[in-house]
Sequence to fold (263 residues):
Amino acid sequence: MDLGLHGKTAVITGGSSGIGLAAARKFLAEGANVAICARGAERLTAARDALAAEFGAEHVIAEAVSVLDATAFDGFAGHVLDRFGGVDALVNNAGQGRVSTFAETTDDAWREELELKYFSQIVPIRAFSEALKDSGQGAIMAVNSLLAYQPEPHMVCTSSARAGVQNLLKSLSVEFAPEVRVNSILVGLVDSGQWQRRFAARADQNQSREAWYADLASKKNIPLGRLGEPEEAARALVFLASPAASYITGAHLEISGGLSRFV
Fold:
């Protein structure tokens, strides 16, 4: 199936690893140009080099920048537009979860988490909104969490922020229509650096990665019996970005292996 992305340009925040890097590969495989950003320069450089080797350096931009630094991010946006002439898709993927209960979460932690979750959407969208409108088929995709609808008490701050972001995206899907579509994916447990670090710190150091992940899936009652792979989330993002999803906006797509319990 041709998704109609050949020659288009996609920007991906948090693009140096995990879902972001997997999405970059999928966009490039569809013939798109890709601009990725992340805070860590070393890992970002490695990601850029790998993508350039596979798909050609002329199709890839990578820049170390924080999504919370509006001035620096505007500079990144300018570089992308100068290089590729426009932007057709924006994937907001930056950010990770905070593990804490209400009693454990300080005021500063609340402010930090709310700022990260909201402004990791707001800053990139502001920087690229006009280019996306000019595209004629602009699309914004947010990588959000199932926590937005199914909160966990040990992640109370992140759950609350994720729900607010989902509300923001729904509002933008109306405000930006019909020029730009706005959608999100809600991920459950997808293999990532966070889970890999937790595996490394497991109580039983003799337990294999496969066994530890399978045990985790069982404890979390995931019907498909495993964690998701970054590529599985990436495929959904690329579809939502494409003209194949031209009548989809204001929607969310679960990538959770059936973990959700809400209707």
